[in-house]
Amino acid sequence: MYICLCKGITDQDIREAVKTSGNRKEVFKKLGLASDCGSCFEEALNIVNESSNSLPQVAKSNPRNYKKN
Q1: What is the value of pTM for the model shown?
Q2: Whole-angstrom Cα distance, residue 60 to residue 43?
């Protein structure tokens, strides 16, 4: 389903971006969500939050924050 009509971004695009992004802000920036009219912001945020919550805990962690022992 199209979430951002201005950029042609679908819910699946957002879910895929969540998998490879460190946080919500990065997802929005990477896809350009809510950068034009902004009407997609609330629905996009809901999808990002929902998708983030369904990832395993390891996938949610930012690998740059890991320290080698």
Answers
A1: 0.76
A2: 21
